[in-house]
Write a structure and sequence with these properties.
The chain is α/β, with parallel strands linked by helices. It has a domain of about 210 residues: Leucine-rich repeat, LRR (right-handed beta-alpha superhelix) (Alpha-Beta Horseshoe), CATH 3.80.10. Helix content is about 30%, strand content about 20%. It has 15 helices and 22 strands. Strand 7, helix 8 and strand 8 form a beta-alpha-beta unit. Helix 4 packs antiparallel against helix 5. The longest helix has 25 residues. It is globular, with a radius of gyration of 27 Å. The two termini are about 40 Å apart.
Length: about 500
């Protein structure tokens, strides 16, 4: 073959030679923002992004939020407001032009993020109507205040109400509403809805019960940052298809949470510590509890033990630092009241602070058939008024050396250990020394460092120190594969 012909052939833009329908399909796999950027590639690409089946209209992309925040810090509120209003008008003009020139008959996803819509109700309704008339399968509407991102207001406020015509879109498969009110009784009109997310609204217990009863086909339910409930009760019979439930940062649940969902397989909770009543979770596969909003120690070890008893059918469990600091405050600090006999994978999001170590040991003793242990190293602050479960108080090395009671999972079952965000602290090395010295069935140890392991093509000093230290530890298992890699941030 002629080399010159071969070289020129390599320079041909074969992607641009594809039909528009295929190019539109490729762009649909990108985010809407990335799809818009393809318009600068060549003349051929200028309008192809306009046929994407994934439409996302985000007001915040038109507002210079960094500049606004600096102005607000300096007390220049008027200029910050001007920037925000100018960005809003630019966004509205873009949305009008895009929707008016859109030619496709159907779309897969429609996402809208637009804060303070009250002055533009008819405009916003028109945008949503655009999605409904094109048979959108997934609808994501976010009307939350961009200045409230990550901030707790006194109450969550809905800035928009879902239009009545949306409930007539019976083929809707996924609905996500943020700061958007709705009519729970009208959800019975949906006959294909499988995923529902509600956030940043006032949601009474009666409304929640009506919502659940009218959504028997929903498989995935998320309730986030909702208020106006003194307690939360989620009950569904065996005819409901609910298999995944997420509750996050809901306020004022002083009277606790009741969950009775026989088909539930995945349960995640994030927020302040609450009293749970868990019933009939016989099909549960994974549970996660993160009480990261708590900053003070309370003797609720027995209550936590009862919570874990309610998920004892799960094969996978993820727990937080608060749990490890408090779990030993019950009557028996060395074991859980009920061992987790079905648990195979335990993930602990902890810092391996000395206050957490008794709880880690308690959990390991109570997971007799544990096969995989994941330690995700995170930042934490010790709880105020923490009470150590027993004396004397050891450092990492002394604590693990003092553990004379047996760990059944180490003797028979534990096969894999993974440490994420490994920073090389002494307590991190000490728990690894303990685990390596006791885990007879261990086959793999994976260390994911928080620092680069390569420097100018050679192994870094960080890597060499970790490898040398691990090499010194005695190993109960004759064949352990040790992998050291760095955390890849995408």
């Amino acid at each position: 073959m002629d080399r010159n012909v071969d070289r020129s052939d390599r320079n041909v833009d074969r992607i641009s030679q594809l039909p528009n329908s295929i190019l539109a399909g490729i762009i649909s796999r990108l985010s809407f923002k990335e799809g818009v950027r393809t318009s600068i590639l060549a003349k051929r690409w200028i309008n192809i992004w306009r046929s994407t089946g994934d439409v996302a209209l985000y007001e915040n992309l038109f507002i210079q939020n960094d500049n606004r925040r600096e102005l607000l810090k300096d007390g220049r509120k008027f200029l910050a407001t001007c920037i925000r209003n100018h960005g809003k008008q630019r966004f509205i003009a873009f949305a009008r032009e895009f929707l008016q020139t859109y030619q496709e008959n159907e779309i897969e996803n429609f996402r809208l993020s637009f804060c303070h819509p009250k002055k533009f109700i008819s405009e916003v309704q028109g945008w949503i109507q655009f999605a409904i008339t094109r048979n959108a399968k997934n609808l994501d509407l976010d009307f939350s205040d961009i200045d409230m991102n990550g901030v707790y207001p006194s109450d969550y406020i809905a800035f928009f109400e879902l239009p009545d015509f949306v409930y007539e879109h019976r083929s809707l498969g996924k609905l996500k509403l943020t700061a958007c009110d709705f009519k729970p009784s009208d959800f019975s009109k949906f006959n294909a809805l499988k995923a529902l997310s509600i956030s940043r609204v006032k949601l009474s217990q009666r409304s929640l019960e009506t919502l659940i009863s009218n959504c028997p086909l929903v498989e995935n339910l998320s309730i986030k940052k909702c208020s106006d409930m003194e307690y939360m009760k989620i009950v569904a019979d065996g005819n409901h298809r609910l298999t995944s439930l997420t509750i996050k940062d809901c306020k004022y649940l002083e009277n606790g949470i009741t969950i009775d969902v026989p088909n539930l397989q995945y349960l995640k909770f994030f927020g302040a510590f609450e009293v749970f009543e868990l019933n009939n979770l016989l099909r549960l596969i994974h549970a996660e509890f993160d009480f990261g909003l708590e900053d003070e120690f309370h003797e609720v070890g027995d209550i936590l033990g009862n919570l874990l008893r309610g998920v004892d059918c799960a094969s996978s469990l993820t727990l937080c630092s608060y749990t490890t600091q408090v779990i030993t405050s019950g009557e028996e600090p060395l074991y859980l009241p009920t061992p987790l006999l079905e648990l195979r994978h335990l993930t602990l999001k902890i810092a391996l602070h000395i206050n957490e170590l008794p709880g880690v040991a308690c959990l390991l003793r109570s997971c007799h058939k544990l096969e995989t242990l994941t330690l995700e190293i995170v930042k934490m602050l010790p709880l105020d008024r923490y009470v150590h479960p027993y004396k004397p108080i050891y450092d990492g090395a002394g604590f693990w050396a003092s553990q004379v009671l047996h760990f059944k999972c180490l003797r028979k079952c534990l096969k894999s250990i993974k440490v994420v965000n490994f920073g090389g602290s002494e307590n991190e090395f000490q728990i690894l020394q303990f685990l390596l010295g006791g885990a007879r069935a261990l086959k793999e140890l994976e260390i994911v460092t928080s620092k680069p392991i390569l420097t100018n093509g050679d192994f870094s000093e960080e890597f060499m120190n970790i490898a040398a230290r691990l090499h010194q530890f005695e190993r109960a298992s004759p064949a352990i594969q040790v992998v050291i890699c760095e955390n890849q941030v995408i």
